[in-house]
């Protein structure tokens, strides 16, 4: 298990009070990392952190709103003060405030999606870079989506933002590679989270979706957490600038 050993590493995971973010935080902690749980509300963050500590892991709750640059900078500075330099950053938090075609998209909605899903990731990456560069070692994982690889009539701007995240990872991987900072994306398909509850909570819809998937099931948060663990650890030390698709085979159909 040496390749997955994160003992002594400090990790920040945004949007980690539930779903994919929580699963990633739990797996990082299980492999020895000190994990910062962060989302907008303090109580859910502390609940997850407490559960990790109860299981024998090390976790700290620091709430932050990804739309607020000052709060994200505070998230990083508090982590550094309480735990030390950051080794791992997982940008998981995102938003999609509108469901419908682009003709219905207001400028405010467009700006909110791009600010929360792309600009916030840029802010966080820039904020942790110095720690990673000083150690000549660091791993950044951005949770994108298969939506960034295809068009969609209802969540089109969300898909645009997720495609932008893939390019953000590629660019930072090129810029920061000489400092041994690896930057990658994961592109999940349909995962059993609140975002996709319209699918997995409706048995008829779920069965229709699963019938089209080669693996015949929608994903679980741990299906994504395992990939994040690999990318954050020595197991993924020669991977950078990539987008790993985890969709049960959706994109190959």
Supply the CATH class: Alpha Beta
- How would you spell out the order of helices and strands? EHEHEHEHEHEHHHE
| Oligomerization category of the chains in this entry | single chain
Looking at the structure, what is the overall shape?
Answer: globular
Number of helices: 8
**CA-to-CA gap between the ends?**
34 Å
With strands numbered from the N-terminus, the spatial order across the biggest sheet is: 3-2-1-4-5-6-7
Task: Spell out the CATH superfamily.
Answer: NAD(P)-binding Rossmann-like Domain
Number of domains: 1
Query: In the CATH scheme, what's the topology name?
Result: Rossmann fold
- Backbone CA Rg: 17 Å
- What is the architecture at the second tier of CATH? 3-Layer(aba) Sandwich
Spans where pLDDT lies below 50 across 5 or more residues: none
Category from helices, strands and their pairing: alpha/beta
Index terms:
253 residues; alpha/beta; Rossmann fold; 7-stranded parallel beta sheet
Description:
- The protein is built from 8 helices and 7 strands; from the N terminus they run βαβαβαβαβαβαααβ.
- It has helices at residues 19-30, 42-54, 69-83, 107-135, 156-176, 197-200, 203-212, 221-232; strands spanning 10-14, 34-38, 58-61, 88-91, 138-143, 181-188, 243-246.
- The radius of gyration is 17 Å and the shape is globular.
- α1 packs across α8, α3 runs parallel beside α4 (107-135) and α4 packs parallel to α5.
- The chain has a single domain (2-252), classed as NAD(P)-binding Rossmann-like Domain (Rossmann fold).
- Helices cover 46% and strands 14% of the residues.
- A 7-stranded parallel sheet has the order 3-2-1-4-5-6-7, with helices on both faces.
- The protein has 253 residues and is α/β, with parallel strands linked by helices.
- β5, α5 (156-176) and β6 form a beta-alpha-beta unit.
